[in-house]
Amino acid sequence: TGSGLIVSFGEMLIDFVPTVSGVSLAEAPGFVKAPGGAPANVAIAVSRLGGKASFVGKLGDDEFGRMLAGILEQYGVDGRGINFDQGARTALAFVTLRNDGEREFMFYRNPSADMLLRPDELNVELIRSAKVFHYGSISLIVEPCRSAHLKAMEVARDAGALLSYDPNLRLPLWPSPEEAREQIMSIWDKADVIKVSDVELEFLTKSDKIDDASALSLWHPNLKLLLVTLGDHGCRYYTKNFHGAVEAFHVKTVDTTGAGDAFVGALLCKVVDDQSILEDEARLRSVLKFANACGAITTTKKGAIPALPTEAEVVTLLKA
Ligand code: ADP
Questions:
Q1: Tens of pLDDT, residues 64-97
Q2: The Carbohydrate kinase PfkB domain covers which part of the protein (predicted)?
Q3: What is the rounded CA–CA span in Å between residue 69 and residue 287?
Q4: What value does the mean pLDDT take over residues 278-296?
Q5: Which of 8, 33, 292, 293 is the most exposed place for a label (fewest CB within 10 A)?
Q6: Is 261 considered catalytic here?
Q7: CA dihedral 289, 298, 274, 157 (to 10 degrees)
Q8: pLDDT for res 87
């Protein structure tokens, strides 16, 4: 695990999940709090693996915001990039997987504090010290968060950081699919490393084919690495000079939440001090095996954050 700073930009929120599985939100007898938000999960994944992580984003100055800041601190994530909004509240989501297999969402975001992060509030000095800048806020579409997002990317890029992007498509949050596609593609060519899931690949290419041609149709000239994660089928990787696939690990999966974030965190931990990995297929494959193992372990426990593994746990699975 590298020692360079990995800054993750975006939102942290609380998912309220029914205490019993399979019910609709209206039928839930009660809820448990599951802290999350993909960018925050990535920061914690890095820290769990022994890397140096900062989270940049805005929380409400309320009970939930303080709870989330406390969780970041507890996991060793540097909080100098956190702002608290004096007016708006922390984002909340109510999420359930019903017995009919449909996911049901309800969001408190009208607007929530994360959407109100302003460019002038950014800890520019902190962002400048990043070796890797990871982004992919679901609030990309709303001002002032959008401008803050773009400014942070520019500051990091000018300071020489590697830029990593995960679109984290959450369709229900977008006004329309067209707008989601357009906004995601508007920041596509700024990234050096992009990770999409199979679902995102289908969405962005408007095709139900998940093959090399569809992945490569998303290639841009400055890209160093494109990754497609395929759940229990592992991942595919594409660079200028080579491409291939790395198999998943067989584990007892109970909840896949956070697997993609664990995967990204693991990858970033390995490339932060040595970007030459991106040009060496054998070394890249070994890093992706590590990232797959990290994702697999995350699926063996409920929730995202409590399931993120330490490096020792990943090494144990690699040796098994
Ligand atoms: P996302 O959360 O972005 O949709 P995936 O679910 O594809 O991403 O998970 C990311 C990685 O975690 C996969 O590439 C794979 O290596 C690992 N993973 C995910 N689900 C499983 C599973 N059921 N069994 C084993 N590994 C998994």
A1: 999 999 999 999 999 999 999 999 999 999 999 8
A2: 5-310
A3: 30
A4: 98
A5: 33
A6: yes
A7: 130
A8: 93
> What distances in angstroms separate CA 150 from CA 81, 114, 139, 183, 317, one per listed residue?
16, 15, 12, 12, 38
Taking the centre of ligand 1 as the mean of its atom positions, its distance from the CA of residue 202, in whole angstroms, is 16
**Owner of token pair 């990593």:** 164
Nearest to 222 by CA among 203, 205, 239, 200: 239
Give the pocket of ligand 1 (CB within 6 Å). 197, 229-232, 234-235, 248-249, 251, 253, 256, 259-260, 263, 292, 295-296, 299
Q: pLDDT digits over 154-201, tens only?
A: 999 999 999 999 999 877 788 889 999 999 999 999 999 999 999 999
CA–centroid distance, residue 245 to ligand 1 (Å): 13
ipTM: 0.98
